[in-house]
Design a protein that fits this description.
Blueprint (H helix, E strand, L loop, with lengths): L4 E6 L3 H12 L16 E2 L2 E2 L3 E8 L9 H4 L21 E2 L27 H8 L3 E4 L6 H14 L2 E4 L9 H9 L3 E3 L9 H14 L3 E11 L2 H5 L7 H12 L8 E8 L6 E12 L3 E12 L2 H19 L4 E2 L1 H7 L9 H13 L5
Parallel strand pairs: 1-4, 1-6, 4-5, 6-7, 7-8, 8-13, 9-10
Antiparallel strand pairs: 2-3, 9-11, 11-12
Helix pairs in contact: 1-9, 3-4, 6-8, 10-11
Amino acid sequence: MSKKVKVAIAGLGNCASALVQGLEYYQNADENDFVPGIMHVRFGEYHISDVEVVAAFEVNTKKIGKDISEAIWQSPNVCNKFSDVPHKGITVKPGPINDGVAPHMMESFHCYDPSEMQPVNIVDTLKESNADVLVNFLPVGSEEASKVYAQAALDTNVAFANGIPAFIASKPEWGQKFTDKNIPVAGDDIKSQLGATILHRVLVSLAHDRGIKLDETFQLNIGGNTDFENMKKEYRLTTKRISKTEAVTSMLPYEVPTRIGPSDYVPFLDDEKICYLWLKGRNFGEQPITAQLKLSVQDSPNSAGVMIDVIRSLKIALDRNIGGPLIGVSSYFFKHPPEQIRDSEAKELVEKFIRGEITN
């Protein structure tokens, strides 16, 4: 059982930048400290400082060939700097493009020319790095590219954390592949610490628990990072809308007219994400009630701590020889898990998993 959790990252964008910075920022955190965004400083047997990045894949020529400590600051990354990151000795490798770069994003992502550069073999790189966990931080809409990385994880007995809304952990055939190989997988689509989805879920659940009959609800999101630029094209965010919508509507036993998802790209917002929530319903006596809320957050750090907990969950599963989709972990930390469970219940399942009282 290794005391380190070795992580490979596919896509060294803003979310990866926040994760790498966070590992430095909290490396000396006391186990009794309250660390925002982290479930436990010591998650099972693993402290935050036990997590280390050992490999990274990118298509961006400004990042490829650089140490990860330099690559996380390259364009188009706009994640706020909250920690210095020393030289790590981990060089960013060219990953496969597949459908990971939409035509309208070729320039923004500084994508390499396949006639001038070839991707590395993912399987070989994972083996050479001795990675325990592969984190998928590719752009939204990278369906085929996500499958390539998921298959590489299967081929190398590496656990897979699917941070984007490409359905892997929640798709029965993929879940079965990981079960058959006895490799843990968690996903899909990371749920931020306090983001639009978790807040929307709480409000909808509260309304239902308090006897409000909801008639309609929407969630509109705008932001200035490349995630929002990428999702300017509707075809890139089909699974994103499904993921976010099901995460919210699963809190209700009836259907309600709903519109959820990214609505605009505003470049000068950089990594700030602004969300507008609207709920309309009826209370006692069929009297109308509406709720409106605005949330503003730095988008990428909002999910980085969550992913650190996911990574440590997967390492615990590896240590215990547990394979297949992690149900409680996926439901608590992701928007589109194999099974939707109320957050309070899912949190307790994660705590039981850490203690070894349940297997998944």
